[in-house]
Specification:
It is a single chain. It contains 2 helices and no strands. The longest helix is centred in the N-terminal third of the chain and has 36 residues.
Length: about 80
């Protein structure tokens, strides 16, 4: 039973990392589309949202990676 909890955490961690990567990809593609199809003002406004997105994404990604990475056994 000990392994089932870590396997569940691993699956949840992988799912969360994958979801964040998809979200990041969608944001980058959206900004590129705005840059190609939109006006210069729209692109500037979209670029201004990037620091907010990174500020929200970084702690989430760090927490998920920390939960996903296997714990090392110092004594073994």
């Amino acid at each position: 039973m000990k392994h089932s909890k870590s396997t569940t955490n691993g699956k949840l961690g992988r799912l969360a990392l994958f979801a964040l990567l998809i979200a990041l990809f969608i944001v980058i593609v959206g900004i590129a589309a705005i840059g190609i199809l939109g006006t210069a003002e729209q692109f500037t406004r979209a670029k201004d949202l990037l620091p907010i997105f990174v500020t929200l994404l970084t702690p989430l990604l760090t927490a998920i990676i920390a939960a996903y990475m296997p714990k090392s056994d110092a004594g073994h």
